[in-house]
Amino acid sequence: MADARFFGDGLTYIDPSELKGKLIAIEGTDGVGRSTHIELLQEWLEIQGYGVMTTGWTRSNLMSKSIEMAKAGNIVDRWSLSLLYATDFADRLEHQIIPALRSGFVVLADRYIYTAFARDFVRSADRTWIRDVFGFAPIPDLVCYLRIDVETLALRVIETTGMNYWESGMDLRLGADLYDSFKKYQSLLIEEFDKMATEFHFNIVDARKSPEDIQDELKGYILPVLQDRKSAIGTGSGGS
Amino acid sequence: MSTSHPTKTAPHPYPGKLIIVEGIDGSGKSTQLQLLHKWLESKGHKVFFTEWNSSTLVKETTKRGKKSKSLTPTTFSLLHATDFASRLYHHILPPLKAGMIVLADRYMYTAFARDVVRGVSPQWVRKLYAFAIKPDMAFYFKVPIEVAISRLLRGTRGQFKYYEAGMDMNLSPDPTQSFRIFQSRILAEYDKIVDEFGLLTMDATQDIATQQELMRTLVSETLRDYKPKRGTYGRRTLFWRRFDVHRPE
User: Fold this and answer.
1) Of A31, A49, A138, A150, whose Cβ has the fewest other Cβ atoms within 10 Å?
2) Which residues of A have a CB under 8 Å from any CB of B?
3) Which residue range is the domain that position A78 belongs to?
4) Taking the model in full, what pTM does it have?
5) At what angle do helices B145-154 and B175-197 cross, to 10 degrees?
């Protein structure tokens, strides 16, 4: 039943062999510069002639408003919160990601299912359910993980956007104030991301390096994946 | 938490009782549940009612998605699961913990039947609801498709709604024909679910009073070991009335 290209129980009504494009996920906690790097990568890929589509966490037409509303209310239980993320992801998957992959685009995903896994795990200490929920997600061709330590992250977030309720995991009551809570919550997330990095073979990029160095590293990981696609087209591995 | 089928086996640990009804549209399940509700209250029980797809958290989203017709089988299924999770947390668990009787019009079995007919994986949707608790009683109101159709058409509704008739599945341009095909498939799924989860099948072709009498007898048996929580009055207190959800029908 489960297809190798899906994470678990796949979308029964979609043929994965139709997905010609490449799916590249950029993961990492808040404040590691994911969106900046995705913008630069898109520019770089488009100059080389690749069709590029970017998609971001909680940015679906269907759900973005609902998620904001739910978060503003601050009384979301663990299941509803994770299911809201899953619905958002499914909407983007079926209306953006899969159509783009069918047309041979390179899809750059700002966060992927691993973000949901980490967030649910620190709230529930259970890995099974959330992974079952996201069983319909295609496995990316490449996952790059922008890794940072919590000390550097705290400084960066304070300097830029400031710490907010959800990024600090205030719903978990981990610390006395925003700062303590932020550090504990983000440490738990980083710990879980590190474990998943091994389990799911992420390519780890040190997010403390200069943006230029990070770009070079990311490009170094992405190029072989795209060349793999070119050779596949060259040998004419068609067949629907 | 990660046992394979907690919703099939383990009873919930709370002092209250959870009674749910299932069946296709036009099976008369809501009428039966409403009559049971009246009866339980007249007996002095504290009763809380909740129904499928009614949480404020996702109701607006579902409405918007239905209007723009952008819902896919998977997002449709996930939205209902979100609604269910939210109601479980806010509406079902608190009264059960407080020792009340909770009546639910439709439960996760609706998703197992309907979402699978729409095309999601049966295994996936069952895992999705792994956090749900097992009801103390689950009634399935079984009705032949033609009986359901004639009830709905001569009823107040007169016409089938887009998603109720499964019009999103392009089964037929005629709403009645689409309803017939869609709901027949749902009936077939329910038959599997009855065996899998041990639902109590009710003959929904019988007249209303006969069905209700049987339902009350069965509920009485289940409530034998139940220690009812009574407030100062026999009726519900003002506190719980605030959480009440009114039935549209």
Assistant:
1) A49
2) 1, 8-13, 61-63, 65-66, 69-70, 75-77, 79-80, 83-84, 86-87, 90-91, 93-95, 124, 126-129, 132-133, 135-136
3) 19-148+202-228
4) 0.86
5) 130
